[in-house]
């Protein structure tokens, strides 16, 4: 008796492997040029270098942090700090900010870009906090993004710094590092955020945002990366790198702007 054969026409594709259920087996693609072990080693080194990284925007509570982050769009942290020292000395709650009024807020922040619009937003978000959240900053992204001038990135910074949540706020430094190192390549901040959250081990997520920003600000700089001072130079897969020798892994005592 002739054996039965599965007939495959010339040019037809070889069928994909299937599960017993009949569904195609599709492994989610690992979204980084680095293996999980390499990613863990990168963040282990960052954690040794900066055990307790801090953001550089001055603030005294969740409200003043929120205002500082709103003011920091298209401005440097140092420039924002200069303006907010006087502002927060007289207004560190939504109620006091409203009492101060838009004209006085604008006067305090005139040295910052887009100050007119930002003064409007600071007053509007203070009002919204009082009207909708009992004057408290909510620890919830969906609630935060309803506030005037507050987008996903601002919400992520506040959730991370004031509420200890493992969020990833993608700024210009993280956008650059994600792509330059091929750590989490992406065209948009959301794409990079999504990939970083997937690849960074849980134990490092709390501080990962600050480690990446500080690494980008002081070492893997925009115009010329300072690879000789980089603790991950041996692991880095960037075509821009100029050294394979990692800098000594020691805790950093001080960083100047
Ligand atoms: S080796 Fe150079 S390019 Fe790579 S992360 Fe370090 S500073 Fe950036």
Tell me the overall shape: globular
E-strand count: 0
Largest sheet: none
Classified by CATH, the class of the largest domain is: Mainly Alpha
Q: Summarize the helix and strand pattern as letters.
A: HHHHHHHHHHH
Mean pLDDT: 90
DSSP helix count? 11
Instruction: Give the full name of the CATH homologous superfamily of the largest domain.
Output: Hypothetical protein, domain 2
Counted up, domains total: 2
Say what oligomer this is.
single chain
What ligands are attached or bound here? iron/sulfur cluster
Under CATH, the topology of the largest domain can be stated as: Endonuclease III, domain 1
Write the CATH architecture name of the largest domain: Orthogonal Bundle
SS-derived structural category:
mainly alpha
First-to-last CA distance: 84 Å
Q: Can you give the helix content as a percent range?
A: 40-55%
- Regions with little confidence, pLDDT below 50 for 5+ residues: 1-15
* Portion in beta strands: under 5%
Short description:
The chain is an all-alpha fold. Helices cover 48% and strands 0% of the residues.
Q: How would you describe the overall organization of this protein?
A:
The chain is an all-alpha fold and 257 residues long. It has two domains: 80 residues, Orthogonal Bundle (Endonuclease Iii, domain 2); 102 residues, Endonuclease III, domain 1 (Orthogonal Bundle), CATH 1.10.340.30. The chain is built from eleven helices and no strands. The chain is globular, with a radius of gyration of 24 Å. The N terminus is likely disordered. The site of iron/sulfur cluster (SF4) has 14 residues, from loops.
């Amino acid at each position: 008796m002739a054996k039965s054969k599965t007939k495959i026409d010339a040019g037809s594709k070889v069928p994909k492997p299937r599960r017993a259920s009949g569904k195609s087996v599709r492994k989610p693609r690992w979204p980084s040029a680095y293996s999980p072990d390499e990613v863990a080693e990168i963040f282990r080194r960052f954690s040794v270098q900066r055990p307790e990284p801090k953001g550089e925007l001055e603030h005294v509570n969740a409200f003043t942090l929120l205002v500082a982050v709103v003011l920091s769009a298209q401005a440097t942290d140092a420039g924002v700090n200069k303006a907010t020292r006087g502002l927060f000395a007289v207004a560190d709650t939504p109620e006091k900010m409203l009492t101060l009024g838009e004209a006085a807020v604008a006067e305090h922040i005139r040295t910052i870009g887009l100050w007119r619009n930002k003064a409007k937003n600071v007053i509007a978000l203070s009002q919204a906090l009082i009207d909708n959240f009992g004057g408290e900053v909510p620890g919830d992204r969906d609630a935060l993004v309803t506030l005037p001038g507050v987008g996903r990135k601002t919400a992520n910074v506040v959730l991370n710094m004031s509420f200890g949540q493992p969020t990833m706020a993608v700024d210009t430094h993280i956008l650059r590092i994600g792509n330059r190192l091929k750590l989490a390549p992406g065209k948009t901040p959301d794409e990079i955020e999504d990939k970083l959250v997937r690849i960074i081990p849980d134990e490092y997520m709390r501080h990962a945002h600050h480690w990446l920003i500080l690494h980008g600000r002081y070492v893997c700089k925009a115009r010329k990366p300072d690879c000789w001072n980089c603790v991950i130079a041996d692991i880095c897969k960037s075509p821009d790198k100029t050294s394979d020798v990692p800098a000594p892994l020691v805790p950093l005592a001080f960083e100047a702007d």
